[in-house]
Amino acid sequence: MSEITNNPAVEGHVGHDVHESHAHHHGHDDHGHHHKESFITKYIFSQDHKMIAKQFLITGMFMGLVGMMLSIFFRLQLGWPGQPMPILETFLGKWAPDGVLDPNFYLAAVTIHGTILVFMVLTAGLSGTFSNLLIPLQLGARDMASPFLNMLSYWFFFLSSLLMLMSLFVETGPASAGWTIYPPLSALPEASPGSGLGMTLWLFSIIAFIVSVLMGGLNYITTVMNLRTKGMSMTRMPLTVWAFLITAILGLLSFPVLLGAGLLLLFDRSMGTSFYLSDIYVSGQALEQTGGSPVLYQHLFWFLGHPEVYIILLPSLGITSEVLAVNARKPIFGYRAMIGSMLAIAFLSFIVWGHHMYVTGMDPLLGSVFTFTTLLIAIPSAIKAFNYITTLWKGNIVFTPGMMFAIGVVSLFITGGLTGIILADSALDVNLHHTYFVVAHFHIVMGVASMFGTFAGVYHWFPKMFGRMLNKKLGYIHFWVTLISAYGVFFPMHYMGLAGVPRRYYQNFEFFSGFSDLNAVISVFAIIGGLVQFVFVFNFFYSMFKGPKAPKNPWNASTLEWTTPVEHIHGNWPGEIPTVHRWPYDYSLPNGEERDFVPQDEPLSEKEKVAEHAH
Amino acid sequence: MLLNLILLAVVLLAIVTSARLLMVFQFAAELRGKKAHEISDSENNMNALLTLVSLVGLFSMFFYLTATYYNEKYIPGAASEHGVEVDSLLNLNFYVITLAFFITQILLMWFAYKYRYNKNRRATHYAHNDKLEMIWTVIPAIVMAVLVLKGLIVWNHTTNPDPDKNTLNLELYARQFDWTARYSGADNNLGKASYTMINQGNILGLISADAISEQLSIVRADSLITDSTVTNGFLPAEKLDKEKTRLRRLIHQIRTVVAFDYAFKSGSETYAASHDDVLVRDTIIIPVNRPVKLHMRSQDVIHSAYLPHFRVHMYCVPGSETYFAFKPITTTKEMKAKLNDPDFEYRLYCNNICGATHFNMMLPVRVVSEKEYAAWLASKKTFAEETKTRLAQLGLKTNFVNNN
User: Fold this and answer.
1) Smallest CA–CA separation between B160 and chain A, in Å?
2) What is the pTM (predicted TM-score) of this model?
3) Has the ipTM of the complex gone over 0.85?
4) Which residues, 6 or more positions from B241, have their beta carbon under 8 angstroms from its beta carbon?
5) How close does chain B come to A36, measured CA to CA in Å?
6) What pLDDT was estimated at residue A35?
7) pLDDT in tens, B59-101
8) Could you give the residue ranges of the DSSP H alpha helices within B315-399?
9) Which residues of chain A are within 8 Å of residue B61 when distances are taken between CB atoms?
């Protein structure tokens, strides 16, 4: 592999390796053309970060559709419990005899929906896509630090997705212990049919996934640390890159703990160890395992699980910062405070995991500590929310579909974040733990908000990815219907939760003073929200091939990715990579120019130089 | 099958038609000189207006749902002492977050509307303001400090109730997929239990001299049969493996039961506390205004004892015991009158995913006067009496002498 130099100040070593020739001499202006790429090296085993980003995105979209369909299946059951729905039998066959969802498969659907959305869509689909696409492009790098590792990262993700899909076709059914797979339920096939082969596949899938996340994360961090172009200091990086960097660090520190938890579970399942098992009597037999603790698993799981929430949310917030600034034609308000609050959130996310465990029998004193640390997160979150709002203030807001989704992120981030204040409080969480209140909270703040961030990113950077524009009318329809149905699905759930309706119940809602009607309404919103996603998918694939050609910088943005040519080339920039002279948010400077943005690679004007010296 | 094929054809046709239509629109737009990446004034205005409409919509939904569901009928007030405190804390939190919700959503959507694109205007380059940022760091910090403090006070009251000699010890025992309540009887002391003591009659695995004799006879018989299956049976490999595992587990089980037997016979344990325990599997009955300490155990997987009306919730973890103490303050009768619902029952739900029929794992809970409670409990058979009956069926001698 050739040595990679991205710093134009250093004389670049000309690589001999055909596949790795991003490190070119400045003089070369035929990047990516002098060697032939076959279909396989270009589209399948590609090492180009832009292609890998697209692979992550499309795989993530496909998994997203699977996860969404599963949620519609169980919403049909929840909205109209026990009523035959022929469509269920069409899709699920023996899991929905006569169109009624089997209770075991209901739990499996809930489990796999959660797993796919949390890991395959909002971790890999979001970080994988945009970290890959934007880190090199926005930093002025020719590619990732290790393109080969990057390629492997995608293929491990692909393997992981494949294993997860395979588990849907297992005779005893897929994993069905909830996406958190708490043992002993997940450890004992006797206790639940889904804890047989389905669970084994789930575990292998997640192990492959962790490998993918770690290889991706190492790459993102190394690239940000080492491959920034000349002039791109850390405080000139767009907030997107900051978000991806912090996300990668979180992933690198927390995912290995999940790997450990998963391995111990595998040992308990197949080797007779008792890390998580103790004093269990199941299917007429007393197991020999004693001394383990299922609560240990929960500690390990949530040590990943809580940072994972921010692994999902931060990239989305980073994208929001960027899209809001570009389309409000204003700098993001409080750039340094935004970085500071992201760092604070990231740090705090490692010392709050116990708030998922207030009612596990954990020492109440520990509960107090976790309440305190968790509520601290409200402060940096509030800073972020107010800074977003102030960014809009006195802006000149262009309502691109991406911008709509970004505004949506802020609205959802606030709505969902505020209920977190209640759940963080151990005294209040007791009665709301595992109710629909929690479902409403995390779906809004982490699920839908991050999904909106992903959409904002796709609409905003589609022209960069495919050189064509998405249809905006379809984009508006997609946004408004999704927003309405998202609030329509999750807002009423708060009230069900307050009344004590437990999540993951298959039926029996009549015990809770007639929430059956509300449940049906929620399901209707869910179905509408699900259907409108197909409008997006259609728009995506149509525009990929037939959309109108995109100009080089469609949104008049100042970041570096828009200085690359529309046609993708391996190495990103023909000729020299740009040098950065300013921060990424020079929008609407009061400089008397008609143009309301100044690209990052544009040297300071004489006036600006004078101002700089004056500082 | 045919219907599905037709459906598939319709979907495909719809996709192709939409694609064609989109191409026509796109072509028409190009002819009119419209650029796909430029947002027209009408599009900006329309979306800005819709943003305002959605603000109204969001608040309308909030008011409608709150008016309809946030009331006694759907969310009855707490029926326990600490629950009342929890409710008032919850209300305080709701005032705070509702206020924040309104302020921020209004600002967000109003700014989005007000500062919609106008080609004659230039945005204000406004990158930061330390004072403003300080304000929205400090104010949330102060509010959070108050909420944390208030929360911790309630949490302390909830988890460390004042000691009361009168506290009723009550066990909630969970297994797939039902609950058993165990009353501690006259001695208010729950007898020891072990999972190796579980059999069809003794589902909680309580230990008493009789229970030990019963279990030894059952497990020994079981192990003999399994042993002969393993040695003499012609089983397929997979089944043989299962039987071998079973035998190993039985041997482990016998060892522990023999240890209990030895402890009893050597006099180091009397295992008498379980004698007067009472097991109930249909309705849990508790006296009003008397603290109850729930002891929770599980037989197989993690379950969770959730009593929403009392604001009580605790996992039942196999291998360890968890606790939650509370004091019911409203009888079922009073609650029926208050809610004007003659069928009202408090309920115990399982609220941790535990397998296929998790949703069915529930038990009614009735709060009654102390007198009714005492009369009801006296009518129940004790564990010792139940075990004695079963022993007689097995043809074994009892160690238990009824003092009553």
Assistant:
1) 9
2) 0.93
3) yes
4) none
5) 33
6) 59
7) 999 999 999 999 988 899 999 999 999 999 999 999 999 999 9
8) 332-339, 370-378, 383-394
9) 487-488, 491
Rounded Cα gap, residues A45 and A35, in angstroms: 16
Query: Would you call B365 helix, strand, or coil by DSSP?
Result: strand
Cα angle value B101/B103/B105 (rounded, 5°):
65
Closest partner residue to A428 (CB to CB) among B141, B151, B358 is B151
Phi, psi for A417 (deg, rounded to 5): -65, -40
DSSP A397: B
CA distance linking residue A119 with residue A115, whole number of Å: 6
- The letter for the amino acid at A372 is F
For residue B256, the chain A residue with the least C-alpha distance is A288
Q: Is B245:B327 a contact under the CB 8 Å cutoff?
A: no
Of A90, A182, A364, the CB nearest to B302: A182
Task: Give the pair of three-digit tokens for residue A598.
Answer: 């100044």
**Strand ranges (DSSP E) for A95-215?**
none
How many CB atoms sit inside 10 A of residue A571's CB? 22
Q: What region does B395 belong to: left with phi over 0, alpha with psi -120 to 50, or beta?
A: left
By C-alpha distance, which of A438, A557, A537, A504 is closest to A57?
A537
Beta bridge partners of A397: B116
Average pLDDT, chain B: 93
**Distance from first CA to last CA of chain A, Å, rounded?**
45
Instruction: Identify the pLDDT of residue A543.
Output: 95
Q: Measured on CA atoms in the order A269, A274, A277, A280, is the torsion positive or negative? A: positive
β A285-286/A281-282 pair status: antiparallel
Instruction: Encode A316-330 in three state secondary structure.
Output: HHHHHHHHHHHHHCC
Would you kindly state where each structural domain of chain B is located, as residue ranges?
41-118+129-160
Domain ranges for chain A: 18-563
Backbone angles phi, psi at B30, to 5 degrees: -65, -40
Best mutation target among A190, A363, A397 (most B Cβ atoms within 10 Å) is A397
The predicted pLDDT at position A30 comes to: 43
As a whole number of Å, the end-to-end CA separation of chain B is: 72
What's the pLDDT tens digit per position in A60-105?
999 999 999 999 999 999 999 989 998 898 899 899 999 999 999 9
How does the average pLDDT of chain A come out, rounded? 91
How much is the pLDDT for A513?
Answer: 65
Whole-number Å distance between alpha carbons of A512 and A515: 6
The CA–CA distances, whole Å, from A170 to A166, A195, A198, A199, B113 equal 7, 11, 6, 10, 52
Which of B108, B125, B198 lies nearest to residue A392, judging by beta carbons? Answer: B108
Q: How far apart are CA A45 and CA A34, in angstroms?
A: 19
The neighbour count for residue A187, using CB atoms within 10 Å, is 32
Q: Edge-to-edge, what's the strand order for the sheet holding B362-368? A: B284-287, B362-368, B346-350, B303-307, B312-316
Phi, psi for A400 (deg, rounded to 5)? -75, 160
Give percent above pLDDT 70 in chain B: 99
Q: Which residues from B are below 8 Å from A82, CB to CB?
A: none
Q: Quote the tokens at residue B363.
A: 């038990």
DSSP E strands, B230-345: 278-280, 284-287, 292-298, 303-307, 312-316, 322-326
Half-sphere exposure of A369 (CA within 13 A, CB side): 10
B192 contacts on A by Cβ (under 8 Å): none
Q: Are A379 and B44 an interchain contact pair (Cβ–Cβ within 8 Å)?
A: no
CA distance A550 to A545: 12
d(CA B351, CA B360): 11
Question: Is 1.20.140.10 the CATH number for A18-563?
Answer: no
Is A550–B323 a contact, with Cβ atoms under 8 angstroms apart?
Answer: no
Mean pLDDT along residues A354-363: 94
Query: A264 pLDDT band (50/70/90 cuts)?
Result: very high
Please tell me whether residue B206 adopts helix, strand or coil conformation.
strand
